[in-house]
């Protein structure tokens, strides 16, 4: 992973942790704020994932294409979420869950494809993808959990995924010193 890609991942991780903490700090937030937070996170993660793979010439073409496609789809889901933040809670939950599912699958598939090329942080990358996929499945299986449970699952996911992204970024910086 190039240093630019590492710094992008690190920045995305810090942003996800901040958004997760904000979601924990304001549990009685309106649906508009919650939709804005999670829609923004999906948009940022999608753009960062696509940008990472576009600036990393070491990643094999198949993984780059797959990662960019998943990144763009994740960003589009974020835009859909941002366009109708006051919409139905169940619709918002499903949109966010689909975004998490796409982002988690992208992380898992690109990690498996990159493990020989970029072994640094592979375990954390798999954990990040798995966490996002499991949170998405939980929300898709039980969409009527309610806003409080969604906030708890969502904020926990954002913090955990963000911390994993930070650890992956630090691992990448250690593997590629300046």
From TrEMBL:
Keywords: Membrane, Transmembrane, Transmembrane helix. The chain crosses the membrane at residues 6-26, 33-55, 61-82, 89-110, 122-142, 149-168. It comes from the Bacteria. GO terms for cellular component: plasma membrane. The keyword Transmembrane applies. The keyword Transmembrane helix applies. This is Uncharacterized membrane protein HdeD (DUF308 family).
